[in-house]
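README: folding subset

This subset contains proteins for which both the sequence and a predicted structure token string are available. Records are stored as plain text. Below is the entry for Glutathione peroxidase (202 residues), shown exactly as it appears on disk.
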Amino acid sequence: MTFRQVLTKKLYPLIMRLSRGGKNGQILTNKQHIAPKVPFYGLTIQQNNGQVLSFKQLKNKKVLLVNTASNCGYTNQFAELQNLYEKYTDKLVIIGFPANNFREQEKSNDAKIAKFCQLNYGVTFLLAQKSSVIKGAEQNPVYQWLTSAEQNGWNTHQPDWNFGKYLVDETGTLTDYFAPAVSPLGTEVISAIQKQTSALPK
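--- output ---
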């Protein structure tokens, strides 16, 4: 780790306390359970290792999609995400989307990102190839789906900063957005993951 990374790791609890009350602490919920207009399971990603993952493989599990960065005040959430993944590995898939959109806090290439995550946080959940997660011509197609009501059915909100978290349920419906200052191990996230979904896709 660099000096900056060590420092931000130590300051993480303070950063979380100070930012929870602002926009980085907001939660958006699909209270009416509006179904997507474009199927979530039609999406694919290029993984960090170059392999293609079809989201058809994610049916019947909840999926947490998180835009990540290695040099952010929230970077310690890698550890919390790994903890969450290990706790709910039978029902939850986590996919990290490294992005350099916010103050260029992810300048590394895919190989260095994977090494950083594994060595410092023991990350074993999925990582996508580095891409853009904010609206624009270069936005990752998955994030186009997450931030377009014409695709996901209701949400237009893009990540506020690194470590914004989108939760998709077992039916491929976008249910929640948790802003960066909402801990992956917070009661709001845990409750949403534990919530039962009745009609599962075939």
